[in-house]
Amino acid sequence: MNGPDTRDKRGFVGWLRSVPANIWVALVIAAIALIFVLQNRQKATIELFNISMSAPLWMTLLVTLLIGLVIGLLIRRNRRTGQRPR
């Protein structure tokens, strides 16, 4: 019969070693992102043409990053479709 004693007995250290490297990298990046957000909570004013908006600095930088990512993906896709097949 399967009881609580049939569990893997590697312990906590064994469990930590079994976590894949990509999960560790994701956790480190998430921790850095959280620290970044907590340290950049002050307001920033953004002006574009005649429109003025106020938002937290971290949100402003995140939106800028996402806009850059979209632009990069669009350029990359255009380069791929512009290539001739061999």
From TrEMBL:
Transmembrane segments: 21-38, 58-76
Transmembrane helix found in the keyword field: yes
Keywords: Membrane, Transmembrane, Transmembrane helix
GO-annotated cellular components: plasma membrane
This protein's name: Integral membrane protein
